[in-house]
Amino acid sequence: MKHFFALPLALLLMAAAPPPQALEQARNASNTLMGDLQKTLKATLSTQGPAAAVKVCHQAAPAIAKAVSAQQHLQVRRVSLKHRSPQGQPDAYEAKLLKQWQQSKIVPEEHAEVVMHQGKKVLRYLKPIRLQAACLQCHGPASQIQPEVKALLRKHYPQDQATGYQEGDLRGAVTVILPLKP
Ligand code: HEC
Fold first, then answer.
1. Neighbouring-strand partners of residue 130
2. Which of 53, 101, 135, 179 could disulfide-link to 131, CB 3.0 to 4.6 Å?
3. Where are the domains of the chain?
4. What is the residue with the minimal CA distance to atom 37 of ligand 1?
5. For residue 55, what are the contacts with CB-CB under 8 A and spacing of at least 6?
6. Distance 49 CA to ligand 1 centre (A)
7. Which residue, among 82, 70, 8, has the nearest Cα to 33 in the 3D structure?
8. What is the pLDDT of residue 144?
9. Ligand 1 neighbour 112 (Cβ under 6 A)
10. 37 pLDDT band (50/70/90 cuts)?
């Protein structure tokens, strides 16, 4: 009688566990996106300051996400419950996880799950993003953001919600949708 349940259960668990190769690919895409963004941001911040970095970020961030997605045949982007860019709006799956992490204050290193997405089997991967001190000059309380930076943020992001954070706060996540073979 035991075996009667054991086999279907084993098959079910195998189906839900992310294939190791796909998981590696999702991690890699996430690291590449964050690494490329960080490099661009750091270089501009240190040589030209935060106002110039807003302009660079405004152009480079979506372009880098698009390039990594195309190169790696998947979708990778950054999302937040309080997003700055309209493209940073989470879908229902992402929003549910972000809310769960925020409310419970239990934030995993990463989240990976095989699910059906728009009728196709995909790996969904999320990597939480936390704020460091250097991020606050563009995401911190109003008092910590230079007037020039504020003006640029208003200009490029009239719907900006991504300020008022403290160091260490959960800012959002990198999210990857990787198509799997059916
Ligand atoms: C120079 C100003 C600046 C700094 C410093 C900065 N950001 Fe941003 N951040 C932006 C801009 C501008 C965007 C919108 C980019 C776009 O248009 O895609 C953004 C978008 C984001 C997003 C995407 C979600 C959203 O709200 O649209 C995340 C996540 C994020 N930033 C996290 C960080 C973290 C973490 C740091 C520190 C390591 C940081 N930022 C430092 C300006 C900045």
1. 170
2. 135
3. 2-179
4. 135
5. 152
6. 14
7. 70
8. 93
9. no
10. very high
User: How many angstroms separate the alpha carbon of residue 168 from the centre of ligand 1?
Assistant: 15
Atom of ligand 1 nearest to the CA of 83: 26
Ligand 1 site, residue 140, Cβ cutoff 6 A: no
* Residue among 107, 116, 114 nearest 172 (CA): 107
Tokens read off for 69: 């997605």
pLDDT tens digits for range 2-25: 567 777 766 666 556 899 999 999
**Among 126, 116, 87, 111, which Cα is nearest to 179's?**
116
pLDDT of residue 15: 57
Mean pLDDT to the nearest integer, 143-152: 96
Does 51 contact ligand 1 (Cβ within 6 A)? no
Q: Which two tokens stand for residue 134?
A: 């250097």
Is the shortest distance between the CB of 127 and ligand 1 below 6 Å?
no
Share of the chain above pLDDT 70, in %: 94
129 close to ligand 1 (CB < 6 Angstrom)? yes
Long-range contacts from 129-134, C-beta under 8 angstroms, 24+ separation:
129/34, 129/78, 129/80, 129/170, 129/171, 129/172, 129/173, 129/174, 130/168, 130/169, 130/170, 130/171, 131/165, 131/166, 131/167, 131/168, 131/169, 131/171, 132/167, 133/167, 134/45
Q: What is the pLDDT of residues 71-106, one digit of tens each?
A: 999 999 999 999 999 999 999 999 999 999 999 999
